[in-house]
Amino acid sequence: MKFYPAVSASSAFPKDGMKDKDEVVDVMKTYAIENNFVLVTARSQIPILHLKCAKGGTYRGRRDGGENVKRSTETRRVGCPYLLRFSFRKKDQKYYLLRSLHEKEEYHNHPLSPKELSALHEGRMAKLTKEDITLTERLFKENAKTMKIQDLLNDERAPGNKLTTHDINNWRYSFDQRSDIRRSTTPDTSNNEG
């Protein structure tokens, strides 16, 4: 098996630590995207935070038959060993990046290329510009068809920025949920008599 080194995570994480767990996750996910892979939370219980490569682990069948059941689609998980460990120190009230316990935790078992990154939902979404996001959310408000949005986003200007219909529909659902929440928390002034 061939292993691919990643740029050291310590270059993206401040030596004096970070106070907020969400900030740690955001900074490290940005570091990962910039280096052509995606991080997901593997474990998150104070004082421990583990972030692993999204291609880590293996597929586990949930249906009857377990491992003997064939998947209808191919899994993206390839058992990547890459893992970042953080510890929360109560004394300082900060998270610190810990050294790897095993050397293989510093390596990926898959290439770190833009093509590999675009195979994952988070990688495709990270390639969107602010203009793309604004355009898409405007089209959501106009109830534009998913295929129209996909055609507008996946043009020649951004080869490799191929959002799937699944990506767009999930984004639309999330956008609609946020819009519903905003509407329900905004006071209705239309029925006020004055």
What does this structure look like?
With about 190 residues, this protein is α+β, with helices and mostly antiparallel strands. The chain has 2 domains: about 5-115, no CATH class; about 125-185. It has 6 helices and 6 strands. The protein has helices at about 20-35, 115, 120-125, 130-140, 145-155, 165-185, and strands at about 5, 40-45, 50-55, 85-90, 95, 105-110. The strands form 2 sheets. Strands 2-3-4-5 form a 4-stranded antiparallel sheet, covered by helices on one side. A two-stranded antiparallel ribbon has the order 1-6. The protein is globular.
The total beta strand count reads: 6
Order of strands, widest sheet: 2-3-4-5
Query: Would you tell me the structural class of the helices and strands?
Result: alpha+beta
Tell me, briefly, the overall form: globular
Proportion in β-strands: 5-15%
Q: Taking all residues together, what is the mean pLDDT?
A: 84
Helical content (DSSP H or I, runs of 4+): 25-40%
Q: What does the main sheet amount to?
A: 4 strands, antiparallel
The overall number of domains is 2
What pattern of helices and strands is seen along the backbone? EHEEEEEHHHHH
Low-confidence stretches: none
- Per DSSP, the total helix count is 6
Organism: Phycomyces blakesleeanus (strain ATCC 8743b / DSM 1359 / FGSC 10004 / NBRC 33097 / NRRL 1555)
Protein name: FAR1 domain-containing protein
